[in-house]
Known about the structure:
Strand order of the largest sheet: 2-1-3-4-5
Radius of gyration: 13 Å
Number of strands: 5
Order of helices and strands: EHEHEHEHEH
Distance between the termini: 11 Å
CATH topology: Rossmann fold
Largest sheet: 5 strands, parallel
Helix content: 40-55%
CATH class: Alpha Beta
CATH superfamily: Response regulator
Oligomer: single chain
Strand content: 15-25%
Amino acid sequence: MRVLIVEGNPELARLWSGHLERQGGEVVLAVNEYDAIETLRYQDVDVIVLDLVLTAGSAFAVADFASYSHPAARVVFVTNTSFFSDGSIFRHIPNACAFLPSAMEPEDLAAVIDHYSMA
């Protein structure tokens, strides 16, 4: 399982990364749109964990780039806001497969990622 985590909070990204690596995943971290897109230019990924509200750049731009550069990659959006809580994100982002709160237990997030990496 190859996972790209795009999260502006480095502590949270490391926490998630640790759980995924213990499950045998390969994880790359990015803190903004630019880093995420640069990673996607040169590396294949199965799942992208993407903070909906990036501090630098656009999560939609990352998801859009992934949709044509890595069409099989699934996007798991995470957020600490109520934006798109009505599920409309799935109408806007075709490769979105989950929309989860950032505060969910890391083990639960790892299970979701593991599930979608096999899909």
